[in-house]
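Late entry, written up from scratch paper. The run itself happened at the end of the previous shift, but nothing got recorded in the book at the time, so transcribing now.
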Amino acid sequence: SEYHQKLTGLALDILGPDAMVFDADASEGSGLGPAAAGTPNSATAWINTALVARAGTIYAGTSEVQRNIIGERILGLPKEPRADKGPWRDTPK
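Output as recorded:
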């Protein structure tokens, strides 16, 4: 997910000013999503792909959560403090 964001970010940097204009009429398909295989490259296609890449780290699980899981379960690092322990539990209802 992060790699996809970096790659599409680089593509937008290379496109320069053309990456600032999104032509919805030239967009392939309906809504945002990856272009079909064989679709010619265009600034709009790269912008579309870059926008989809931004959501990748959210729907795939945030990178921070994945890193925490690896750190806690594989590397044996201490768990992060939980918000539902300590003073929060003592808060009157």
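Residues 2-74 form one domain.
(Scratch paper discarded after transcription.)
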